Amino acid sequence: MTTAQPHLSFYNTLTRSKAAFEPMDAANVRLYACGPTVYDFAHIGNGRAAIVFDLLFRVLRHVYGESHVTYVRNITDVDDKINARALRDHPDLPLNEAIRKVTETTAAQYQKDVSALGCLEPSVQPRATDNIDGMQRLIERLLANGHAYAAGGEVLFATDSMADYGQLSGRNLEDNLAGARVAVDSHKRNPADFVLWKQSSDDEPGWDSPWGRGRPGWHIECSAMSERYLGETFDIHGGGLDLIFPHHENEIAQSRCAHGSHAMANVWMHNGFLQVEGQKMSKSLGNFFTIHQLLETEDFGGRKWPGEVLRLAMLMTHYREPIDFTVKRLEEAHSIWNTLVTAAIPYDTGVPDDELIACLSDDLNSVAAIKRLQTLRNASVHEAEPFAGQKLRFGLDLLGFKYRNAAQWLEENGVGATETAQTEQQVAARLAALNAKDFARADEIRSELASKGIVLMDYKDESGQRATKWEVKR
Question: Which residue among 71, 94, 169, 351 is the one 20 to 30 A from 341 at the CA level?
Answer without folding.
Answer: 71
